Structure formats: structure tokens, C-alpha cells
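Thread title: Can someone regenerate the structure for this chain?

I was given the following input by a collaborator and told the matching C-alpha cells would be attached. They weren't. Posting the sequence so someone can regenerate them.
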Amino acid sequence: MSPSTSNIAPFDAVLFDLDGVVIDTTELHYRVWEDFARERGYTPTREELLATNGRRAGETLRAWFGAALSDEEVEALTYDREMAFHRLLEHEPVSAVPGVGAYLRSLGQAGVPWALGTSALADNAELALERVGLQHLFPVRVTSTDVTRGKPHPEVYLKAASALGVAPGGCVVFEDAVAGLRAARAAGAACVAVATSFPRDILVREQPDFLVKDFRDLPAPLRPGSAGAFRELMAPHP
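Best answer:
Regenerated them for you:
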């Protein structure tokens, strides 16, 4: 992102979720959650695993093991779960979501700022980006460590927009999860559903502004330098 390059895109900034948007780790997360739960006597359904997408770990833990868990218990369980994921992430094969690197470079060439807004812990976000060679392209990051309320609350995206010095209403958010799409909408941003984690019919119900498979064939309004009527999407949604 060169400070000398003027923004020629029809939007002010782009905000990215991490898992399922930048890096394809969805099935890895499911595997960790399933093993973690079974070791503690709980067998999650596929629907429950799907619902972990975009949620902070503590929310899933209370949903599965009881709302009466103390903050200390949730903190300890969250640490164990995140360390289990970290260990797998260190050596399991992972890849970037197709086209994301090229899209980031196109944003940089157009002078469009971007930031990461993720429910992951800061250490896991750093490792995930390192594994796909994109850590240097995300200097601005807001992780679960930086917020008190998880998605679908908009805090993560409000803080990411603020870190870039832009209004949330001028941002477009790429998300793969229902909770994340709701967070983006609540922040006042336009939202793009990336169909890497949830079935398309579930994503459609959230009425995203765009629904894409990945970054390889984005519609014209999402490409910097195009003449798409993107500003119409920035109007407040009912």
C-alpha cells in the first residue's frame, strides 16, 4: 500500500476475515473442535461445527459445555483449544483462498487500504498468515485479543475501519460466515459472502451484497479501478 498512490477504487477500504477468506482452514478448525469436544465427553453435530465459524471460542465453549462456565474456566479451555489448533496449523497442509494474493496486490496498486478483522487469537492469525506467505501484506490487524465482543457484534470491523482512518460505511467486508456477515452489516459496511465454509443457500439468506466462490472472478464493482456502481451499496440498509 503506497501512501503516494491515490485511491481509484469506488470504495474507501476493504476489510477481510481470516479463516475461510484469506486462508482455507475451515476443515482444520472443524477437526480441532470435534477432537477437542470428544476428549471432553461432547459430540458436536455437523450443524454445531458449522456454527463455530466466525464465533469466538468462548462462545462455542459455553454453548457446548454450559453457560455456567466461569470466565476462568472459559479462558483455560480457550487456551487449550487454540493451542491445539496452533499445533496443527504449524505442520498441516494449508493454502490461501484462491486469488486473494492477487487481489491484495491490485488493491495496493490502486492505493486502497485494507485490514484484517478476525475472531482468531493474535498468535494464530500471525501463524496462519505466515503459512500462506501473506503476513507482510496485513500490517493492520484486529483480532479477538483486541475486542471484548465477538461477531456478530460489529466491534471487530468498527475497530478495523477506525485503524485505517475510514468510515465503516465506506468499507467492503469479505466474510465466509453468517456471524461475520451480520457483523459487517451491523457495522454499516457492504458485505461479500465467500462460499468456502457455509452452503450457498445459507449465505443467500443473509442477503450479502455479493456472493462469490473466491477471489478469482470478482464482479466488476469489487475490482479497484472498475466503474461499477458500488456507491449504491453504501447507502444504509433497512
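The two ends are 34 Å apart (CA to CA).
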